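User: I've been trying to design a sequence by hand for this structure and keep getting stuck. Would you show me what you'd pick, starting by listing the structure so we're on the same page?

Assistant: Good idea, let's start from the same input. This is the structure you sent:
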């Protein structure tokens, strides 16, 4: 993702809630953390690499064990490094018909030496796999939930509209062309959500009314202090959905490690070999996973 601007502290009507209660539907942040560790053990996972291919196979195996109906969106992207094979993986849970809530995240890593992307790419993948296990056990889903494992989020060379978010651009085009777009209730994008010092920003490009549902969910669970205490604008996988008129929100902690002029604009660990598992916390996965599940539930009541 690309930081567009920093807006500073945000005075919120939503205040911090009471001590957190148990996560709904038995969401297990430790499971998401452990999945992330397994993902990171594949190493650098850039599109077209052997490690990327092995991770694709791992994701597909786990989704089938979770009982998801799995579809593949394979395509070849035209990139500054030439044509690269890419693969969006779609896991469908719940009923086959009805308005769809989607949870998305990317599983590729950036073309950087020794970059294993524990938080940036790994955490979103671990979160989605844990959500698949949780929702796959839930016989009470009254509307469809789709999990989107997006490929090619990272710029292959330098972030531009053409060199970034390859997977989401391709998949949104497919949703529009097939007439599916109007059936999508909302897209919840999770990206960089494992940071042990969790602080989910209010992303200002995102759909505000969906953010209001998220804020309500966080308050209900006692997790309000972790959400929307500051705001920023980010270019990420939610942007192609927004351009297609699909409500979408980017959920992420975009201050990762020490900040300052010597570091990346999102912090010392962002796009660095220091983006490793020791910077993450199972508690952060529990917070975000619980809030995502409660938000899905609230959206389904519309």
């Amino acid at each position: 993702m690309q930081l567009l601007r920093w807006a500073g502290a945000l005075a919120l009507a939503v205040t911090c809630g009471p001590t957190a209660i148990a996560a709904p539907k038995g969401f297990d942040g430790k499971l998401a953390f452990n999945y992330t560790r397994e993902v990171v053990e594949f190493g650098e996972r850039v599109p077209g690499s052997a490690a990327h291919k092995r991770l694709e196979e791992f994701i597909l195996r786990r989704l089938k064990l979770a009982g998801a109906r799995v579809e593949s969106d394979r395509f070849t992207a035209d990139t500054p490094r030439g044509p690269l094979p890419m693969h969006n993986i779609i896991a469908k849970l719940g009923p086959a018909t009805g308005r769809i809530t989607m949870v998305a995240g990317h599983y590729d890593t950036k073309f950087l030496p020794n970059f294993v992307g524990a938080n940036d790419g790994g955490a979103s993948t671990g979160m989605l796999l844990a959500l698949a296990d949780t929702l796959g056990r839930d016989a009470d889903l009254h509307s469809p939930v789709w999990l989107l494992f997006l490929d090619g989020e990272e710029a292959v060379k330098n972030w531009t509209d053409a060199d970034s978010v390859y997977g989401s651009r391709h998949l949104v085009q497919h949703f529009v062309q097939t007439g599916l777009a109007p059936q999508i209730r909302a897209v919840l994008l999770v990206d960089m959500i494992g940071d042990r010092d969790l602080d989910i920003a209010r992303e200002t490009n995102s759909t505000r009314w969906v953010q209001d549902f998220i804020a309500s969910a966080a308050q209900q669970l006692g997790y309000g202090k972790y959400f929307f205490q500051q705001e920023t604008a980010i270019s990420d996988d939610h942007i192609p959905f927004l351009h297609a008129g699909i409500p979408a929100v980017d959920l992420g902690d975009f201050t990762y490690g020490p900040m300052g002029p010597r570091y990346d604009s999102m912090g010392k660990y962002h796009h660095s070999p220091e983006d490793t598992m020791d910077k993450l916390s199972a508690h952060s996965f529990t917070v975000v996973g619980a809030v995502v599940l409660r938000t899905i539930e609230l959206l389904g009541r519309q």
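That's my pick for every position. To get oriented when you compare it with your attempt: The CA atoms of residues 183 and 287 lie 28 Å apart. Confidence is low (pLDDT under 50) at residues 6-24.
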